[in-house]
Amino acid sequence: MFPTGNISVQRFDLVHPLLQGNKWFKLKLNIMKCFEEGKDTVLSFGGAYSNHIHALAAAGMLAGIKTIGVIRGERTEILNPTLREAEGFGMRLHFVSRTEFRKRYSPDYITELRGFFGDFYFVPEGGSNILGYRGAAEMLPDDAGDFSHILMATGSGGTIGGNLLAAARRGLKDTKVISVPVLKDHDYVLEGVRSFLQTEGISNFDLLDVLPGYHHGGYAKFSDELISFINNFQSVHKIAIDPVYTGKVLFAVSDLSKKGYFKSNDRILVYHTGGTQGMKGFIERYPQYSFLDHDLI
Q: Alpha-carbon distance 133 to 167, whole Å?
């Protein structure tokens, strides 16, 4: 059973029906910058089930700009729900090999893509550039200082980095900002977070704690234990969560509570950073887990 009482969930998944969770916060300043530069196209990268790609496509449709998604892997005859919807929003999908996808951080490769597509505004995978970090800083709630712990999933690093920036600038001293990495190899992500904070004049990382043992095998990996937890949580609390991000964070909170990590007077805030759009594809891909509560998606 998931513990309740002194644990609250910040429902960023309810921000917008298409721009769920943390993705809009990381995209909003980038889209404004795209307009400022007089460009009409945004290009970014993502996997086949990417929440970031889905959100960017939706943002492009709503803002009236063109979007290009460079997608890892070959195009399938029938696209998964994430990519079907992204294409339906007007995004141009460009599929590349895994080898080519690894060049996504290379400036020369971005220049090469500009030669192919024409000029565009570039947003890195996950939206975690400087503007993405600064946008994510707006997620920290006004009453953040009332909580002893704020926990969130960490993928590309923008959300944890932005919230640490906001916490430091507000002078929070007694609130731990806790990263639950959803990747096995997360050290380089946290190095990027520290580098960003240093450029913003923040050199004190005392607020940050990292709990690396809850990735359940790595990014987009899961265990039967995690799926069982998600189903139990959804059944009791009627809140849709996913096995890539928020499910792992809430699993961590449950496990830590059982192990006595939190004190009885601690107040804990957990970020629900969206991602439930991906559940349609998850159920389609793993029909053996179709008992997940469809009505919540």
A: 13
- What is the C-alpha separation between 293 and 240, in angstroms, rounded? 8
DSSP secondary structure string for all residues of 132-190: HHHHHGGGS-TTGGG-SEEEEEESSSHHHHHHHHHHHHTT--S-EEEEEESSS--HHHH
Do 12 and 155 have their domain in common? yes
Instruction: Mark whether 138 and 93 lie in a shared domain.
Output: no
Answer yes or no: do 51 and 175 share one domain: no
Taking residue 3's Cβ as centre, other Cβ atoms within 10 Å add up to 13
Query: Can you read off the two tokens belonging to residue 60?
Result: 């492009």
Q: Which tens digits make up the pLDDT trace of 208-244? A: 999 999 999 999 899 999 999 999 999 899 999 999 9
Distances (CA, A) of 269 to 143, 146, 233: 10, 10, 16
Read off the pLDDT of residues 85-100 as tens digits, 9 standing for 90 and up.
999 999 999 999 999 9
Q: Which domain holds residue 85?
A: 23-127
Go through 275-287 and write b for each residue having 16 or more CB atoms within 10 A of its CB, e for each that does not. bbbbbbbbbeeee
**Residues with Cβ < 8 Å from 32, sequence gap 6 or more?**
none
